[in-house]
Amino acid sequence: MALSLTSPAAERVKSYLDARGSGIGLRVGVKKTGCNGFAYIVNYADSANDSDAIFEDRGVKLVVDKKSLELIDGTEIDFVKEGLNEAFRFRNPNIKGECGCGESFSV
After folding, report:
1. CATH code for residues 4-106
2. 79 sits in which H/E element
């Protein structure tokens, strides 16, 4: 079980954590929502719980609750800029379908 980051995603997280001045890494999870069932949640992790799995890739800690990990195991997180828009993108090998807007997925 693991999550990974591309170089652009790792650099983005590191720069934000440095600017923020606190945090242990990036918290990644999923919530039930959207037209296809689940959506990704991304936030800074200030701490980890006993029920979290912690991975480290490219010098960044990724904190994931174990229930979410079942749905996103093997996911690569990228950071992309398209014009004025920028966002994290997820390459999840477990998804069976995505909605047209790309905001939700099903497994």
Report:
1. 2.60.300.12
2. strand 76-82
Rounded to whole angstroms, the Cα distance separating 19 from 40 reads 24
Structure tokens at 33: 């929502």
Torsion of CA 42, 20, 60, 91, to 10 degrees: 30
Q: Give the Cα separation of 4 and 90 in Å (integer).
A: 10
Contact 88, 42 (CB under 8 A): yes
Measure the CA angle with vertex 14, ends 16 and 83; round to 5°.
Answer: 60
Run of H or E including 12: helix 7-20
Q: What is the pTM of this model?
A: 0.85
Q: Which residue type occupies 62?
A: L
Tens of pLDDT, residue by residue over 81-90, are: 988 899 899 9
